[in-house]
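Posting for a labmate who doesn't have an account.
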Amino acid sequence: MLTYMKLPVDLIEDELRAFEIKFKEAVKSQAPMLDRIMRYIVKRKGKQLRPMFVLLSAKVFGELNESTYRAASLVELLHTATLVHDDVVDDSMERRGFFSLYALWKNKVSVLVGDYLFAKGLLLSLDNNDYQILKLLSDAVRKISEGELLQMEKARSLNLSEEIYFDIIRSKTASLLASACAAGAWSNTNDPDIAQQMRLFGENVGMAFQIKDDLFDYSSDDIGKPTGNDIKEKKLTLPLIYTLNNIDRETKRKMIFIIKNENKKNKKIKFVIDKVIEQGGIKYAEGKMNEYKQKAIDILYRFPQNSYRNGLENLVNFVTDRKY
């Protein structure tokens, strides 16, 4: 067993190093300003969960090839592009504890950098005839955009059903992880059935990942995300949706009024958080998260056991046990 909160990087240390070299090469630009921005992005990369899912999803079925590394780079390029654009959409000044591109270079540059990253990803696949991998990842980008727009459309009313919430996070968060796992598997097998199974595995992990993010809003741990932050931004998360759909009408009306009109007052935010806890919203969301986690592990267990399958299982556990 891995120690708590440890990522299974020891299984793919060499592969991750090789990926990092290839990714740096993939984002290089002849334009000095753009190359400077790319170096800033590479230095401040996150935990690289998605490339890890690509590499491990491939290693389950054998040794890696150049197509696998290109798939991992494509996933990271597309993910980074969506984050750059997200910061513009959300007017966000921070990303992973550092200034965001949007904070440093503002709207125009950020949008163009996001576009550049998308284009580099497309060309990386097209130049190497990775058509199926490009198809898998392009589908994820379409779903991410649809999910974002659906969330914007529905969030205004603050009256969201669980069904619509799950549709949103399936598109917004889970689709990229699903495509990452499918692309990794495809790069090593060229088997559509295996790729589809791994796509479903990744989708379930992605659903659990987003619900875990939702739960951070109700935690007082030092996780780098302020308690009640989603409420302040009028974001409807699963614990809140469950509570609003299962509480008496008068309290629901009061909670919605606070979220719409008093979402900067800490005492009012505390009232909402307390109601979510009292109503069992946290436990309900944890239960749903664990359901998706178990679905993912059940799919994984259809494949022969090896150290890389164990690594993927540990990665799933990391997603649901992480503190940040």
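Reply:
Got it, the structure tokens are right above this. Residues 1-5, 222-226 have pLDDT under 50 and may be disordered.
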